[in-house]
Design brief:
The chain is mostly helical and 253 residues long. The chain is 60% helix and 2% strand. It contains 7 helices and 2 strands. Helix 1 (44-75) runs antiparallel to helix 3, helix 1 packs antiparallel against helix 7 and helix 3 (91-127) crosses helix 5. The chain is elongated.
């Protein structure tokens, strides 16, 4: 008797416990009950909210990237510390870049919270299907994003499990280890590659350049790199929208 099936041959009894097929004849167990085909699916409304938020964030990031490139181009006309007159001539384009950047960062934070919540919810829904051999579930769906340096790898491992389990056709019986035979998603690989390609250069540039506010040349380099990372984040957001919608649809088959 166990709370979870060990393999596909175990059966669910009326007391809510799982029993092996080779029970000793002297053991009295409740009569088995037939499991109805009511697969646990990933929340459609939650997926749509996440998709819309990510899509809006991606559009705003692209606009911020555009104004960032304009601001960097204007900065490259000068060298060294900007005079008051030079800084004044850049005020409009700088304000546009800063405004769109601030909005983009706000949407990224909101999107990040929704992604963590969606990951936890999806993992919990799919766990009820009885997959065997899971490693990145429960608290890992949240903690994977919060551990420094490890969050460059662990969230992708969490998504790999969720995506593979969702793609196993569910007929009301435990999926067992069937999900482990599936290849990880190439779309998931693309999403994570784009995300890491944006995160790492941005952080390294901040460390190497420090505070470039008094040097127009260094500031132009920083803004150019940030604009590139915004474009990469935009592409990553679009890929993630497609990925989560595909996972949600797969959970319904």
């Amino acid at each position: 008797m166990a709370d979870r099936p060990r393999n596909e041959e175990w059966w669910l009894a009326s007391d809510g416990k799982w029993y092996p097929p080779n029970l000793d004849s002297g053991v009295e167990a409740p009569e088995p009950v037939r499991r109805q085909r009511e697969p646990s699916v990933i929340s459609g409304p939650f997926t749509r909210v996440l998709s819309v938020t990510l899509s809006v964030a991606s559009v705003v990031l692209m606009v911020a990237s555009f104004f960032g490139l304009r601001y960097a181009s204007a900065l490259q006309k000068y060298s060294g510390q900007l005079s008051e007159a030079e800084a004044g001539s850049l005020e409009d384009v700088e304000l546009a870049w800063a405004s769109w950047t601030g909005l983009a960062l706000l949407l990224l934070i909101v999107s990040g919270i929704l992604v963590i919540g969606w990951t936890h919810s999806a993992s919990k829904a799919l766990d009820s299907r009885g997959p065997i051999g899971r490693r990145w579930r429960g608290g890992w769906t949240i903690g994977a994003w919060l551990i420094p340096f490890a969050n460059l790898v662990l969230p992708k491992l969490v998504f790999n499990e969720i995506d593979r389990i969702a793609r196993v056709p569910y007929a009301g019986v435990p999926v067992g280890e069937d999900w482990r035979a599936l290849e990880r998603s190439q779309l998931g690989d693309l999403w994570w590659l784009l995300w890491i390609a944006g995160v790492v250069p941005s952080q390294l540039t901040q460390i190497l350049l420090g505070d470039p506010s008094n040097d127009s040349g260094r500031l132009a380099v920083l803004v150019n790199i940030n604009s590139l990372t915004y474009a990469l984040f935009c592409a990553a957001g679009i890929a993630l929208v497609i990925l989560v919608r595909r996972i949600e649809r797969s959970s319904r088959t």
